[in-house]
Amino acid sequence: MLHKLNTQGRVAIVTWKGNKIIFGIVGIMVSFFIATSVQAGGMNYAKAWETLGGARWNGYIQIQACYNDNGKHAKRGYHRFTREAGPPLDTGRLYTSEATSSNDCTVRWREDSVWDSPLWGDKYTTKYWYDFEWF
């Protein structure tokens, strides 16, 4: 199953007089936490975050084959950045190194970055994908 990490936070500002700013600040803070979600607890996970004021997207993926992830053991993981336009982007699958066996306890990871598009709109949004291959 391919996983997509949501990289778009939405802020709903309530129009009550004195509370507009407070709700806006809380909404922005919540959107930052949503954008940097990780898959689940454990040693096999991926995360994405922005730096340089949103100009750069970073991704991190990690596996540990000896970790029992609901009865499965990760062989390798990959992440990928895509964008439809502004300019188009597809990094392809960027893999971690491959574990030698399900008993291999080496933590394998990779971190990659891409420049985000300065344009607004869905087709200019950089998307982050990740998945794992299992023994």
Would you write up a description of this structure?
This protein has 135 residues and is mainly beta. Helices cover 12% and strands 37% of the residues. Mean pLDDT is 83; it is low at 7-17 and 33-39.
Summarize the structure.
With 135 residues, this protein is mainly β. It contains 1 helix and 8 strands, in the order βαβββββββ. A hairpin with a 5-residue loop joins β4 and β5.
The counted number of beta strands is 8
**What is the arithmetic mean of pLDDT?**
83
**What order do the helices and strands follow?**
EHEEEEEEE
C-alpha end-to-end distance: 15 Å
Helix percent reads 10-25%
**Estimated structural class:** mainly beta
Strand content: 35-45%
Radius of gyration: 18 Å
The main β sheet shows up as: 5 strands, antiparallel
The helix tally amounts to 1
Features:
135 residues, mainly beta, elongated
List the helices and strands and how they pair.
Elements: E1 3-5, H1 20-35, E2 45-51, E3 56-64, E4 74-83, E5 89-90, E6 94-95, E7 107-115, E8 127-134
Antiparallel strand pairs: 1-8, 2-3, 3-7, 4-5, 4-6, 4-8
